[in-house]
Amino acid sequence: MNASTLTNSVPRSRKYLDPETLQKIGSLELIAREVVEGIRIGMHKSPLKGFSTEFAYHRPYVVGDPLRHLDWRVFARTERYYLKQYEAETDFTAHLLLDASSSMHYRSGKVSKLEYAKYLAASLAYLVVTQRDSAGLAVFDSELRRYVEPSSTMTIISTIAEVLEKIEPTPRTNIAALLHEFAGRIKRRGFVILISDLLDNVDDFVKGLDHLRFRGHNVIVMQTLDPHELTFPFDGAIKFKGLEEPGEILTRPQRIRDTYLAELKKLLDKIKGACSKTGVDYVLVDTSKPVDQVIASYVMSRNMTL
């Protein structure tokens, strides 16, 4: 079952909030409350079951065991059946890493990738804290710009919202350096949630993921892209300007659309493949989609694998 199927299976007792509707609310703290309330009404259960359950060890399969716990990667290597065993964490910490580089400022509609990322970060922080767990925030571009120490008190939501509301996009991205820094900074195993368009050196970025996973952290990558970046619907004569590099080019998009989409697919496949190999959860986020729908779909799909 894929994420879209799961999304369609969520009861819609309340209309999902689209990004432009959220933008009209204004306050990030209120936006987070609206999004989380929408998730809870839609799911009718604790939405963080998938977040707070961690892999512990493998054990051999015994006839009668539930097949959903089989580790097919281990089977591919050993041709033997093993089950994943999980343990519930009594509490955990979620470290939200938000990319604030210039490329995140792009938008085809009223909401930029950066604004959407703020909605995601604030909502995830609210979701975590209302489950009595801890949330913290790091804002970065080519280096760490702001850091909010994790806390499980509700006041942390106001602090995170205040920091997010003051963010302005800045030049260049260096995701790999930030991931390596956090791998060394975080002493206790927790969740690291990266929200970025990932328009950076993929090989270096993957090394950063490896470092976090080596230190035992659960990692979630939410690649946040504008719908026009995903579909390239431009027509006529268009001037494209670099967001993180100087320069511009005037061209007719229809001449390069197929090449662009093919290169985009190669990039996305490379990122998804690297995440899968490293044991990192990957979520492709389209900024035209409702924030509560994106989060609910991910949580439900994660729960289905436990």
Helicity, as a percent range? 40-55%
Please give the order of strands in the largest beta sheet: 5-4-3-6-7-10
Number of helices: 11
Largest sheet: 6 strands, mixed
CATH-level-2 architecture of the domain at 92-291: 3-Layer(aba) Sandwich
Query: Strand pairing plus helix content: what structural class?
Result: alpha/beta
**Mind telling me the C-alpha Rg?**
20 Å
> How would you state the average pLDDT, rounded?
82
Q: Give the ordered list of helices and strands.
A: HHHEHEEHEEHHEHEHEEHEH
Question: What is the CATH topology descriptor of the domain at 92-291?
Answer: Rossmann fold
Unreliable stretches covering 5 or more consecutive residues = 1-15, 46-50
Strand percent estimate: 15-25%
Tell me the CATH superfamily of the domain at 92-291: von Willebrand factor, type A domain
Task: Determine and state the CATH class of the domain at 92-291.
Answer: Alpha Beta
Count the beta strands: 10
Query: How far from one another are the termini?
Result: 14 Å
Coarse shape: globular
Could you characterize what this model shows?
There is one protein chain. By secondary structure, the chain is an alpha/beta fold. The protein has a domain of about 200 residues: von Willebrand factor, type A domain (Rossmann fold, 3-Layer(aba) Sandwich), CATH 3.40.50. The protein is about 45% helix and about 20% strand. It contains 11 helices and 10 strands. Strand 8 and strand 9 form a beta hairpin. Helix 3 packs across helix 5 and helix 8 runs parallel beside helix 10. The longest helix is centred in the C-terminal third of the chain and has 26 residues.
